[in-house]
Amino acid sequence: MNRLAKLLPPGNITLDVSVTSKKRVFEQAGLLFENNHGVARAIVTDNLFARESLGS
User: Fold this and answer.
1) Are 44 and 30 in contact (CB under 8 A)?
2) Could you give the CA distance from residue 11 to residue 27 in angstroms, rounded to a whole number?
């Protein structure tokens, strides 16, 4: 199994999600990880925003 497959098993992939902003994408990711892995959605969204603010 390759590295990407380990990070993105089918349960961590959501298709056809209608979002209107980056904030909504991060909120959906937070909800996904909260429901599937018990990680508080605020932790996920806050860390995604923090990473995004670092730039590339």
Assistant:
1) yes
2) 17
